[in-house]
Amino acid sequence: xxxxxxxxxxxxxxxxxxxxxxxxxxxxxxxxxxxxxxxxxxxxxxxxxxxxxxxxxxxxxxxxxxxxxxxxxxxxxxxxxxxxxxxxxxxxxxxxxxxxxxxxxxxxxxxxxxxxxxxxxxxxxxxxxxxxxxxxxxxxxxxxxxxxxxxxxxxxxxxxxxxxxxxxxxxxxxxxxxxxxxxxxxxxxxxxxxxxxxxxxxxxxxxxxxxxxxxxxxxxxxxxxxxxxxxxxxx
Length: 235
Known about the structure:
Elements: E1 3-4, H1 11-21, E2 27-36, E3 40-51, E4 57-65, E5 68-79, E6 82-94, E7 100-107, E8 112-117, E9 120-125, H2 135-145, E10 150-157, E11 160-176, E12 179-189, E13 197-203, E14 209-216, E15 222-232
Antiparallel strand pairs: 1-10, 2-3, 2-15, 3-4, 4-5, 5-6, 6-7, 7-8, 8-9, 10-11, 11-12, 12-13, 13-14, 14-15
């Protein structure tokens, strides 16, 4: 599911973490979301993971704000510690920005991916270990749990694949409405001349749940989400 291009955590810890990473834990988490495009506009976001009656899993991320609403979801199978996406959907609707939509359908049997990007349809071969734009986030969470510190994913998007690399850059203690936690700080690795940055913080004590995300765009606008509440199913 990933290409490891760096070291792992200490082996005595990684072996136990790897076993944990083979299991998914249903979650429901609420975040405060801030989008800054010349003015700060606050909103809320929810992230949920649950298993469905047929054994597949549904992972959702929803943002509700004054300028934009985002609905994003992926249905997938969980096999041997890997996300196998089946169907991905994304919709953005807003007052100050253009509406957008994306869809991906993964056909493992036919070894193909079909979809649409803002109304334009496409078909392409299914790359080995391909992921969708939401499922890779869950895969990253599970790979951190397994002790990985530097990973790269093939993410399907707009008729092609992006090679997205992430690296652990340290640890940081964060205070949240649900408590104080030592977190693992992860950066999306980009080209040296890139003016876009993405940082994420995951809390091992909360089953490696995302606690904070900050993304800064080339124009200086900032997008941030911070954990406000979490409900994690007991194991």
